[in-house]
């Protein structure tokens, strides 16, 4: 994400743009699933887990809106991430097969629903976080649910890691091939069909009456987005590309031999404080804006490499603490609810 937001190399930017978001969400789903599994293994009541996830959803949602308030040019996914934490409770006790089936179904069903939600729920902020566009919970749900399924697997097995990497390559190449050779041919006829169906060709675009009753006060759904694969469109094709990239990265990391796994320690350190590092990029951008610096690394040699090194170094330093600042606050916050539920259960 730091390369996407601060990097200067356009080619690298094209690779990471949108894909790192789905990688972030996929890893969140894996972590979510592992936490739930550990509680089951310890025979801890699932009510404690539910209380903890609900508390974390509230905390993440508040942090997300504070970052939105900074009004940087970056999109904030934390409100959607918080909504996923709540909605995913439905799937915690489901089988791995159900999780895989749900992830596949969401890849197809979620895009039209989130486009419809982007129109109908645009003024209802909580509902928009759930199903209102490419940065909503529904749009990111395929990657999160896929992560929940992967969290059930033994990632130390070479066969599992290899399957993830190969599956990621197949998905990524398939998505890119469809975007390059198939979608450009389909878009004109699909958009012409939309014009005929919606009747916009004869009457022209009519802006909605903002004072009309719902849903007459909403913009028409942007159905033409369905056949695009640009970053952050959250269509089936963009999800195929981004999730394929995420699976490939995960599989390659799991294939790293144990005797040289120390090379991954800096990345693991950043992963331990992922929420803090995610929020930090918005604070950096906001601070640079106040300082009047729009593009501080423009013209600097090897600027993208400097960003990677600086990000890993800062993450490693923060990870030396018992917990990252935001991670520590989140744990204290969810413990309040966990303790209260435990006390109520004992009475």
From TrEMBL:
InterPro entries this protein is in? Bact_Transport_Assoc, DUF418
**Transmembrane annotation, as ranges:** 12-32, 53-70, 76-92, 99-118, 124-150, 162-183, 235-256, 263-284, 304-321
* Species assigned in the record: Paenibacillus agilis
Q: What is this protein called?
A: DUF418 domain-containing protein
Going by the UniProt record, its keywords in alphabetical order are: Membrane, Transmembrane, Transmembrane helix
Chain ranges of the DUF418 domain: 232-332
């Amino acid at each position: 994400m730091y390369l996407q937001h601060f990097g200067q190399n356009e080619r690298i930017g094209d690779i990471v743009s949108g894909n790192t978001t789905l990688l972030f969400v996929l890893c969140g789903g894996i972590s979510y699933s592992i936490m739930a599994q550990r509680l089951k293994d310890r025979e801890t009541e699932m009510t404690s887990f539910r209380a903890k996830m609900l508390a974390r959803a509230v905390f993440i949602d508040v942090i997300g809106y504070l970052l939105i308030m900074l009004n940087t040019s970056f999109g904030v996914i934390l409100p959607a991430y918080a909504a996923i934490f709540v909605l995913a409770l439905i799937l915690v006790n489901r089988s791995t097969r159900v999780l895989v089936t749900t992830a596949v179904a969401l890849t197809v069903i979620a895009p039209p629903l989130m486009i419809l939600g982007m129109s109908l729920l645009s003024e209802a902020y909580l509902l928009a976080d759930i199903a209102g566009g490419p940065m909503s919970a529904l749009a990111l749900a395929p990657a999160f649910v896929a992560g929940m399924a992967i969290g059930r697997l033994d990632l130390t097995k070479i066969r599992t890691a290899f399957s993830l990497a190969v599956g990621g390559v197949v998905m990524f190449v398939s998505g890119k091939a469809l975007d390059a050779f198939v979608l450009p041919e389909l878009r004109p006829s699909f958009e012409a069909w939309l014009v005929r169906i919606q009747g916009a060709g004869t009457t022209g675009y009519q802006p909605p009456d903002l004072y009309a009753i719902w849903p007459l006060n909403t913009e028409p759904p942007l159905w033409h987005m369905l056949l695009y694969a640009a970053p952050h469109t959250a269509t089936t094709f963009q999800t195929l590309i981004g999730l394929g990239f995420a699976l490939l990265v995960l599989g390659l990391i799991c294939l790293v031999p144990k005797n040289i796994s120390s090379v991954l320690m800096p990345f693991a350190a950043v992963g331990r404080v992922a929420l803090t590092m995610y929020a930090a990029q918005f604070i950096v951008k906001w601070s640079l804006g106040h300082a009047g610096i729009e593009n501080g690394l423009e013209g600097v040699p090897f600027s993208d490499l400097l960003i990677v090194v600086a990000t890993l170094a800062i993450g490693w330093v923060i990870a030396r603490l018992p917990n990252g600042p935001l991670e520590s606050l989140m744990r204290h916050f969810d413990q309040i609810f966990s303790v209260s539920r435990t006390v109520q259960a004992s009475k």
